[in-house]
Amino acid sequence: MTPPPKPPSVDELLTAAIGAVPGGEPRPGQQRMAAAVQHAVDSGEHLLVQAGTGTGKSLAYLVPALLVDGPVVVSTATLALQSQLVDHDLPRLCEAVEPVLRRRPTFAVLKGRHHYLCLARLEQSTGEDEPQDALLETGGAGGGTGGGTRWLGEAGRIGKQMQRLRDWALESETGDRDELDPGVDDSAWRLVSMPARECVGATRCPYGAECFAEASRARAREADIVVTNHSLLAVDMLAGRHIVPPHRLLIVDEAHELADRVTSAAQAELGPELVDRVARRARSFVEGEVYEGLAEAGEGLAAGLAQVRPGRLTAGLPPALRDALTTLDAALRHAAGGIGDVKADDPDPVRKQQAKSGLTELSETAQRLLAESGQDVAWVTGPDRAGGPDRRAVVVAPLSVAGTLATHLYHERTVVGTSATLALGGRFDAIARALGLAPGPAQNSDPQETPQWTSLDVGSPFEYRRQGILYVAAHLPRPTQSGLSDPAGEHLLELVQALGGRTLGLFSSRRAAERAAEVLRAKTDLTVLLQGEQSLPLLVRRFREDRASCLLGVLSLWQGVDVPGDACQLVVIDRLPFPRPDEPLAAARSDAVDAAGGSGFAAVSVPVAAVRLAQGVGRLIRSAEDKGVVAVLDPRLETARGYGGYLRASLPPFWYTTETGTVLAALRRLAATT
Questions:
Q1: Which residues of 51-69 are buried (b: 16+ CB within 10 A; e: fewer)?
Q2: Rounded CA gap, 60 and 490, in Å?
């Protein structure tokens, strides 16, 4: 009997994959990473890999994944990377390795239920009801002069979108919202999608056999590679790991984002508008007096919240808020009990499940708040900084998710976490603590229960010292306000004029970005693009196309902009991106470390700033041909003892200077030669 052919090696598959890329060539960092992932699979030891821009990390983890029996799950933080994997990297890879593997690997995308059109909800919606329901749920009805006209306009617009959705449902094979082009508003999509908690399940749903979400799960169970996102991975982990197919290897790309996504998944909110929405859904299934009790409890919550100043609840629940939550919890549980079990032969099982799950979820949140666990942080929201309406709510979130990750993420699978920003201060300690791989400050841990892990920094193929300069304006005053100081504004103008545009400005606040735009518009003829004035994709496209332009914005620009070439040769950062003092979670985590005898600033604020700063600095060099300057207008990066050096060690190894004349001369040379 002929023995089965020997499986190909990682090197053979990687060579085939590289050969399918135009101009592709071996990269030492990519080869080291692929070998490390293979070793992790063989040994069962978890792995953290820092892979700088240009390494080709996607291929480095996808190639060894193809040699693993059963599905391998790849989780990403951003839609951009998910699309890159599914639309480009995986199709090309599967085609390239087919002759070597002697079969064509398969892959599938797995998203949360709310990403897929729900046929049951689509059937429920009527031409008369859905625009009104959508506007009530989003507060779009409004009031005051012209409110009725605006409401009718919104209702008509949503009604047209609903008809588009009905037509699309007849032709779509996946029901995936990302494939709907042009898209629809969130308010319209909510009417045809079903959050997982509100789903009655395929066996009790009249459309279970045709369900788009169930079909996506079936495809995932049969695929070699399953691409999902951190949010669904977090929900899967918190719900007992029954959503994502069983697998031996989990690859977490953009791993520096995972802890925040798990925190978001474990966060809950309770406010009068939510109570009103849930009460209206339950009205058809409960007696009139039960509904009235819910409505009164919602009004009581509004009154209790009105007596509390927005911000973190550091001294426990105020009495008025505690009383309101106690009354509300009782009303919610009474209503949920009155609805009873959801059965397949109910006249309307879908709406019934929606009503009951909403009541139960709010009750669980109320009980969590009333428990006042030392493991949670609670705060009251107020008007947003843009001056929006004062829609108060109380929010609860876990103080830390490291323990949750340590307990649930690593069990019965090997986890590989990778990103361009994992080795903060040149070490993996901070990210390992955040991901539950190592104990935090003043935290005891049983060595036998701590996940076994190793780390690797494969560097980057870019020659940072030759391609870029890191300049710190050490002569400027230390930032002391949320806006942009006059000296910083004047220096920004000087830098931008030396280059003649091609500047990406990353600011710590909307106010600072707006002030920078005012300065540049008043003193130059450059095109100044300000985030918020147009859609971000349009702004980025205009920035790429017009070299005499500047793109200015806040946090989303720090991570989401990829502009290789000479369209972006100066990245300006106005101040070190420490968490704001009024960020409840960061403040609570810092206080907890201080209380345990550590330094909350060093353990919490500095690592957060390091990740954000590294992401922002990483906008400059996106290809081997790029050249330019990163200018930091915050002198603390040079002058602060301790954390200044830590932050610089978290960045790519640019040529470093604090000499203004040197940098201005370099910018003028760039302007003259490109």
A1: bbbbbbbbbbbbbbbbbbe
A2: 45
Question: Is 2 within the bounds of a domain?
Answer: no
Note the pLDDT tens digit of each residue in 482-540: 789 999 999 999 999 999 999 999 999 999 999 999 999 999 999 999 998 888 888 99
**Is 366's pLDDT higher than 80?**
yes
Same-domain status, 358 and 454: no
HSE toward the beta carbon, residue 108, CA cutoff 13 A = 18
Residues facing residue 74 across a β-bridge: 227, 251
One domain, residues 250 and 354 = no
Query: Is the same domain home to 193 and 118?
Result: yes
Q: Where are the alpha helices (DSSP H) in 178-287?
A: 186-189, 212-222, 230-238, 258-265, 272-282
What is the reported pTM? 0.87
Q: Is 99 exposed, middle or buried (0-12, 13-18, 19+ CB in 10 A)?
A: exposed
Count: domains in the chain = 4
Task: Tokens for 597, please give them.
Answer: 């005898």
| Contacts of 247 by beta carbon, 8 Å cutoff, 6+ apart | 70, 71, 72, 73, 226, 413
Q: Residue 341: which domain range?
A: 269-387
Regarding whether 52 and 119 lie in a shared domain, the answer is no
Residue-wise pLDDT tens digits, 216-256: 999 999 999 999 999 999 999 988 888 899 999 999 999 99
- 287 Cβ contact list (under 8 Å, min separation 6): 338
Please name the residues in contact with 346: beta carbons below 8 A apart, sequence gap of 6 or more.
352
Helix (H/G/I), strand (E/B), else coil: 6: coil
Peptide bond into 451 cis (omega under 30): no
Contacts of 480 (CB under 8 A, 6+ apart): none
Give the tens place of pLDDT for each residue, 408-435.
Answer: 999 999 999 999 999 999 999 999 999 9
Q: How far is CA 159 from CA 47, 116, 140, in A?
A: 50, 19, 14
Q: Which residues contact 450 (CB under 8 A, 6 or more apart)?
A: 406, 437, 438, 439
Q: Let me know whether 497 and 601 are in one domain.
A: yes
CA distance 582 to 507: 18
**Tens digits of residue pLDDT in 584-625:** 999 999 999 999 999 999 999 999 999 999 999 999 999 989
Quick one: pLDDT at residue 127? Answer: 40
**Could you say which DSSP state residue 85 is in?**
I
Co-location of 595 and 488 in the same domain: yes
Q: How far is CA 211 from the centre of its chain?
A: 27
Query: How many residues does this entry show for the chain?
Result: 674
Other beta carbons within 10 Å of 78: 15
Residue found under tokens 């095109």: 527
d(CA 453, CA 170): 49
Task: Determine how β-strand 268-270 pairs with β-strand 394-398.
Answer: antiparallel
Same domain as 280, residue 196: no
Residue predicted with more confidence, 481 or 458: 458
Amino acid symbol at 157: R
Which residues have CB under 8 Å from 265's CB, separation 6+? Answer: 231, 234, 235, 238
Which residues make Cβ contacts (< 8 Å) with residue 671, sequence separation at least 6?
A: 498, 499, 500
Nearest-10 Cα torsion for 534, 540, 544, 547? 50
Average pLDDT of the residues in 309-317: 93
Q: Specify the DSSP class assigned to residue 246.
A: P
- Give a yes or no: residue 425 inside a domain: yes
Cα–Cα distance for residue pair 527/280, rounded to 1 Å: 50
Task: Supply the DSSP symbol for 604.
Answer: I
Asked if the model's pLDDT at residue 455 lies above 60, the reply is yes
